[in-house]
Amino acid sequence: MTEQELPVVLRCNALALTRDRRPVLDDVHCDIRPGELTAVIGPNGAGKSSLLSVLAGLLPPSAGEVSLGVRALAGIPVAERARRCAFLPQQEVPAWSMAAQDLVALGLLPWGRAISRTAVRERVARALAQVDATELALRQVTHLSGGELRRVQLARLLVGDAPLLIADEPGAALDIRHQLQLMQTFRQQSDSGKTVVLALHDLGLAARYCDRLLLMQGGRLFAEGTPEQVLTPARVGEVYGIHSEFRWRDGRAEFIAGDLL
Ligand SMILES: Nc1ncnc2c1ncn2[C@@H]1O[C@H](COP(=O)(O)OP(=O)(O)OP(=O)(O)O)[C@@H](O)[C@H]1O
């Protein structure tokens, strides 16, 4: 099978987005393939969050289209879309207080009463355990630290077992151990057949864990490919204005950020 023939979960075709009359996405074409862990990377304001929101169906594009499988994303009913695609935005402050386990259970809302109460309890407990947050189950979400709250929100992302997971800077508030644990969880999810799309600032994590990178700059897709193909010193220099090195050590991809150019 050639690259062009590989099946695609999400396809963006000539995508454009205008916000406050400013173009923030411009002629973006990209494919998200099943079972891959893809990171959208790029400097602040490059359009990563905007792209993820369009991919999740939360922002309608100003031009172009997104398809989920063989159907136009915009034509898929909201509840069905939510069962097929779980989304975690970059920042989300709880609007009111509730126990962490109840926040996680909200991730099962798209299934309505199709899931029994016992199954809800079991799945919530499993999702909390996946992000090392079992001990937070009964805590009020408004009383959690930033990283604790993020882990609970991640459990809500995972609890529905959706085949497509989209998360915007999922590990931004997490300590280094929980960041690594989280990336391993996303890696396991994609190894078990799920499709995962993350916006990431940490290029070391992107290089180490991801199959594919989409490098954005100024609302356009600047480069895409494997971490080794995308994170060349020349590209990183042009987009981020820093020296860098990409290398393999003990079979693991490493990205090392150097000085400013
Ligand atoms: N709600 C909004 N209304 C208007 N413009 C917005 C809005 N959100 C983002 N923008 C603009 O869209 C552009 C892309 O923003 P976006 O949040 O997608 O970038 P990003 O790559 O995710 O950035 P960061 O790394 O800082 O999170 C920026 O110029 C930003 O100012």
Automatic annotation (TrEMBL):
Matching entries from PROSITE patterns are given as: ABC_TRANSPORTER_1, ABC_TRANSPORTER_2
The organism's place on the tree of life at top rank: Bacteria
Q: Which CDD domains match?
A: ABC_Iron-Siderophores_B12_Hemin
Q: Where is the ABC transporter domain?
A: 10-243
Matching entries from SUPFAM superfamilies are given as:
P-loop containing nucleoside triphosphate hydrolases (SSF52540)
Keywords, A to Z? Answer: ATP-binding, Nucleotide-binding, Translocase, Transport
Which positions are tagged coiled coil? none
List, alphabetically, the SMART domains matched: AAA (SM00382)
Q: What does this protein do?
A: Part of the ABC transporter complex HmuTUV involved in hemin import. Responsible for energy coupling to the transport system.
- What is this protein identified as? ABC transporter ATP-binding protein
Native organism is: Microbulbifer bruguierae
